[in-house]
Amino acid sequence: MIIKANVKEALKSLITAKQRTILALIGIVIGIGSVIGMVSIGTIVQNEALKQFRDMGIDIVSITKDYERQGSDEGFNIDHIYGLPGYSSLIKKVAPYIVSSTQYSYMGQDLYIELMGVDESFFDLNKLYIREGRLLSDLDRNRFFCVIGAEAASILRKAGIKDILGRQFLFGERIYTVVGILKSLPEGGGMRPSGINRGAITHITTAMRAFTTNDITTFMARVDTQDSKAAKAVIENYFSKKAGGLRVRVRTAEELIAQMQKQMQLFTLLLGAIGSIALIVGGIGVMNVMLISVTERRKEIGIRRALGAQRTDIEAQFIIESVTLCFVGGIIGIILGIIISYVFSHFSKWDFLISQSAIILGFCVATAVGVFFGYYPARSASRLDPAAALRE
Amino acid sequence: MLHLIDIRKSYQVGPTAVDVLKGISLTVEKGELLSIIGPSGSGKSTLMNILGLLEQPSAGTYSVEETRITYDDDRTLSSLRNKMIGFVFQQYNLLPRLTAVDNVGLPLIYRGISEKEISERSMEYIKKVEMQERFHHKPTELSGGQQQRIAIARALVGNPSLILADEPTGALDTHTGQEIMNLFRRLNEEEGITIVVITHDPKIAAQCRRKVELRDGIITG
After folding, report:
1. How many domains does chain A have?
2. Domain that holds residue A385
3. Which of A5, A306, A390 has its CB closest to that of B109?
């Protein structure tokens, strides 16, 4: 009951002192806005990163030759890779790939479209789907066909090339015919080779003939086990025996996710720290405004004390006023934060999410700032000598 | 009802102590209409603050209805002010943001009464001071005399047994001041409320049934 009357009172007094209220609000809005914006962006980034694993499954591993621990800089032997599923039933499918350093030029301008060489299972493991035309299959061995990524297609269209399907392009010294355009893929996550959206893909056998550097440095595999450690051991063992002590680095989806979550935690912590600094500055603004408010209303405090308000009533009145102020700032800040994260996700072409926990956090933090920074002014108001306050 | 024995009050002003009240002994009976008269600087405002439990005397004892005030508990003092005493000030001291009804209801807020009941009782007391035309006006929209009537309604709304009025007519013209005094006399006669009026005006003091003269911190008559 007293709380309700106090909130009404607080709103009235905040409205009366418009300018001051707005100035104090700006600090809180920026503080809460940046906390919410940053937490939301963190959530969006994390969601985007995990989306790849939801897409591809977590039974995928990526195997890289461990260059750090051996002298030879030759890549994998492709026959060794294809021998892996026959060696252990834990390995279901393998997909080696090569990335060329050649880039595509069109009418004198570099369009930065990279060409990759892959085999049929690569499309399946990476969950690549066709938007127009057809996918490559192992029947395209040694043939100069390619499919291109969604972004690469739009780059070409922007450069003025229509009718991409069936068109021939010169990559390096060879001419490739485009047979398909891929659907757009979510970026990030670290499992899928990067740049598929912006690249072109031909069959690996074609690539090995055409590319100047044709080392296979990485391949992917689907494993058939809950125990990724066992699969990891099998693969390491295989290459060590088969390829004369070749050491490989196997990265499982689990490891990548764990690593990513660790990074996200750090990221969130950092963003949270920046937001907190903004909030402290905002909070000091609120404290300042509340102190001015107390000084200006000494007479009112005296009157209320004379009419029977206890010290705790006066304290409650000013804390409620400060919490109300912060709460209003919190609401605006939350809206601002959501707008910031929307703009961010819009320009990064990532899925926009509203993080409920961020909103709850926003309200909690706003209230806490109100109580914390309102306490000292409220306390000094309640300690005023009523007779002296009335003489003002 | 009120019993003061050898009340002293001194303020520390810089290095020197200023004695404002130098031993006041006074008894106010229930149902009295008493004036305390004295020139400015005589200590009458300090005396009123002590009577109203807004200040603690430096020495002496003050008892309200046989209970000695100990000044160690804010809750008890606030509750006594809220339930037993109604204040009327020279400058009315209404809160400018609030309407007449909300101003009058202020003492009741601190009793945890429902909002509806507060506004009902406030209106009842505004009618009593004949201000029912001005329920939702703010203080700045009222004349001095009207504001003082609202202030009196606020003093009465908590149903106190004592009204302390500090120069209640000081900011009003003679005619309006007389109306306020008439209101006090009516309240005293009809409702038996004890009223203490502090004034420097002998004409106001003359309308009270008992007069106490204060000069330089002591009672002279």
Report:
1. 2
2. 2-53+258-391
3. A5
In this structure, the answer to whether residues A23 and A120 fall within a common structural domain is no
Q: What backbone torsions phi and psi does residue A212 show, to the nearest 5 degrees? A: -75, -40
The tokens 């009003």 sit on which residue?
A: B172
The whole-number pLDDT of residue A70 equals: 59
Q: Give the pLDDT score at B30.
A: 93
User: Does any CB of chain B come closer than 8 Å to the CB of residue A304?
Assistant: yes
- Residue B27 CB: number of other CB atoms within 10 A? 11
- Provide the pLDDT for residue A1: 42
Q: Hey, what's the torsion of the CAs at A379, A382, A387, A392, to 10 degrees?
A: 70
CB-based contact (8 Å) between B56 and chain A? no
- 3-class DSSP state of A367: helix
Ordered by start, the domain boundaries in chain B are 32-49+81-219
How would CATH label the architecture of B32-49+81-219?
Answer: 3-Layer(aba) Sandwich (3.40)
Give the per-residue pLDDT at A75.
Answer: 77
Sheet bearing B2-13, strands edge to edge: B16-28, B2-13, B59-64, B67-68
Closest-CA residue in chain B for A299?
B93
- C-alpha to C-alpha distance for B134 and A181, rounded to whole angstroms: 79
Last residue of a domain, one of A201, A220, A246: A246
Please identify among residues 41-100 of chain A the ones whose CB lies closer than 8 Å to any CB of chain B. Answer: none
Identify whether residues A19 and A167 lie together within a single domain: no
Top-confidence residue, B148 or A44: B148
Task: Say how far apart CA A114 and CA A172 lie, in whole Å.
Answer: 10
Quote the CA–CA distance of A144 and A173 in Å, as a whole number: 12
What is the value of ipTM here, to two decimals? 0.94
Please state the pTM of the whole predicted model.
Answer: 0.75
**A191 secondary structure, DSSP code:** S
Residues ≥6 apart with Cβ < 8 Å to B9: B19, B20, B21, B43, B46, B50, B55, B57, B58
pLDDT on residue A71? 53
Question: Which H/E stretch holds residue A178?
Answer: strand A174-182
Whether residue A323 sits in one domain with residue A216: no
